[in-house]
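Run log, item B.
One chain of 149 residues. Sequence copied directly from the ordering sheet:
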Amino acid sequence: MPSVKYIIELSDADRRALREVISKGKSPAKAILRANILLASDRNNKKHMTVAEIAETYHTTPTTVQNVRTSYANNGLEATIARKKRETPPVPPKITGDIEAHIIALACGDPPEGYEKWTLRLLADKCVELNYAESLSHMTVSRILKKRI
């Protein structure tokens, strides 16, 4: 039989916070699952369960149960329940405010020789020509102008 690496003994405040997460139902499903796992793992609980019993009861894997228990033992309650926020967006924006300002200024200015007015494709091509961006879609120019003008 495997040894229990982390013994979970919740304080009264932690137990109250976990029950609140579960009872309100406004938390993400993962947070509710983690709260249930911690409550079931609590040594002070009369209905204390093993890792396998918890996994079967909450339709998850024993690895998930162990990960939640490990996270609680190492990081505390808030880090275990709360969702981790991203530090940066997954992909940095291609068009910054400076580039948007250049596009708007171009659109407000006189069109190139031989054209009566700016088209979206002309604006996109001119921005690439002036090295504002490596490549630029006419649809991106459309969104920028629609948003700002």
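Observations after the first pass:
- The chain has two domains: 12-81, 97-144.
- Helices lie at 12-24, 29-41, 51-57, 62-75, 77-81, 97-108, 120-129, 138-148.
Flagged for discussion on Thursday.
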